[in-house]
Design brief:
Elements: H1 3-19, H2 28-46, H3 50-68, H4 72-85, H5 92-103
Length: 107
């Protein structure tokens, strides 16, 4: 990835993080850093199967974002709230990692 592309995608993640309603006082840079950490952790945990595991999450995230005309990060947060409310919170880290992959692919 070239430097300009990397900076542009980082700006998109920061912009999306700042527009989300996670916490009113949340720092967008800290949110973006946590999202990247989440992705790195999931890549480490799933190893060679990471790409395959995230494929379906990415498809659903993109479809949800397109259908609701929201960013991928906002779509992930909306879906995460539903997962948590229905007792499926364990899927949230992989969902967030998949959202980051859509914004700035690492695989």
């Amino acid at each position: 990835m070239n430097l300009e592309h990397g900076n542009a995608t980082r700006k998109r993640i920061l912009s999306a993080a700042s527009s989300t309603a996670m916490r009113p006082a949340a720092n967008p840079i800290q949110i973006a850093a946590k999202l990247y950490d989440c992705r790195d952790t999931m890549k480490s945990l799933f190893g060679e199967t990471y790409s395959e595991v995230t494929r379906e999450y990415k498809e659903h995230l993109q479809a949800f974002a397109d259908r609701n005309k929201v960013s991928v990060i906002d779509a992930a947060l909306s879906i995460a709230k539903g997962l948590e409310a229905n007792g499926h919170g364990r899927a949230i880290p992989l969902l967030l990692a998949s959202a980051v992959e859509l914004v700035e692919p690492s695989i």
